[in-house]
Amino acid sequence: MKGKIGLEEHFAIDDTLMDSKGFFPEETWIEVRDRIMDLHGRRLRLMDEFGMEMMILSLNAPAIQAIPDPKKANEMARKANDYLAENVRKRPDRFQALAALPLQDPDLAAKELQRCVKELGMVGALVNGFSQIGDPNTIAYLDEKQYWPFWGVCAELDVPFYLHPRNPLPQDARIYKDHGWLMGPTWAFGHETAVHSLRLMGSGLFDKYPNLQIVIGHMGEGLPFSMWRVDNCNAWIPNRHSYPAKKKIGEYFQNNFHITVSGNFHTQALLNAMMVMSSDRIMFSTDWPFENIDHAALWFDAAPISEADRLKIGRTNALKLFKLKGA
Is 32 among the domain residues? Predict the structure, then answer.
């Protein structure tokens, strides 16, 4: 399929480059480093070869979210956003941008999101999970009340928000002790982001801002498979769940969340996700440079789905959600 749009596609600046190193063996890091720092060379050639019209670019992880000082986080976010906007301006037909945000300070984050959307032309935001605030061991999740005014700005701007993974802090990762292979994309990323997403759904946030749209990657971080159980756990017990939200969790997943196939090129998982949330809320992505464009594109182009669904997932859902102009 030609004309595919990917929206979990990463870059780095010199200041954030080393944030990605720890996820890869030393012999692999040279390749990843070259991939992530390139925008207009090999990346574009691979896009052309495998039918990708556009990448919506975002900063690597954890980057801004791992800078405890709010002022420094804001400075780094602005630096990364200015760099990204400059590069998008060179090829707006091939690249668009998601803003990095200093959510250590919700007011600063709201102002930076407004700047990025209104002045730099960005089409949304991508944030790497929880933020460390003040010191490395103090963290905040985005369902907490101090963030609700920020969410109001996001809803007013009417731009999607991509919730991207990061590893739990050591103090919260005891279950992974002596099992480091489970960290990162193997398991910890998905678990962390799934719980964060469920917290958002249960908080009542989407009752206050019903049009807010969240995107999560990797075929939904396991949530499509688990959503029935989340809502029906011990259904014979009255009042089993008590949370601030007014509806079942699955209703918010259906109405306020979208997923991408980034880094999860598995046909059975795709079919499950389509049955749970329909092809209208699934979008193509590769997770470049951490996954391969060819692996994503060749799998997706051959997946046993209808051509109407392939077009929606590969292209038109992203055009609609991010208000993009297609060729």
Answer: yes
Within a domain: 327: no
Domain that holds residue 183: 4-321
Q: In the predicted model, is pLDDT for residue 327 greater than 60?
A: no
Paired residues of 6 in beta bridges: 55
The mean per-residue pLDDT over the stretch 140-161 comes to: 98
Residue 229 CB contacts under 8 Å (≥ 6 apart), including other chains: none
106-122 per-position pLDDT tens digit: 999 999 999 999 999 99
How many CA atoms within 13 Å lie on the side-chain side of 288? 30
Q: Is residue 75 part of a domain?
A: yes
pLDDT in tens, 126-144: 999 999 999 999 999 999 9
**Residue 212: CATH number of its domain:** 3.20.20.140
Structural domain count, the chain: 1
Residue 240: per-residue pLDDT? 79
β-pair type (139-140, 131-132): antiparallel
Q: Spot the catalytic one: 19, 105, 143, 287.
A: 287
Is 326 among the domain residues? no
Name the amino acid, one letter, at 228.
Answer: W
User: What phi and psi values does residue 214 have, to the nearest 5 degrees?
Assistant: -110, 140
Mean pLDDT, range 240-249, rounded to an integer: 92
User: Which residues face 131 on adjacent strands?
Assistant: 140
Our answer to whether residue 287 is catalytic in this structure is yes
Query: What residue type is 282 in one-letter code?
Result: I
> Residues 288-311: pLDDT tens digits?
999 999 999 999 999 999 999 999
Dig out the tokens for 248 from the structure: 């079942």
Picking from 308, 301, 297, 299, the residue whose alpha carbon sits closest to that of residue 274 is 308
Long-range contacts of 226-234 (CB under 8 A, 24+ apart): 226/194, 227/253, 227/276, 230/198
Strand partners, 260: 283
Q: What is the pTM of this model?
A: 0.97
Is 260:285 a contact under the CB 8 Å cutoff?
A: yes
Categorise residue 274: left if φ over 0, alpha if ψ from -120 to 50, beta otherwise: alpha
pLDDT tier, 239 (very low <50, low <70, confident <90, very high otherwise): confident
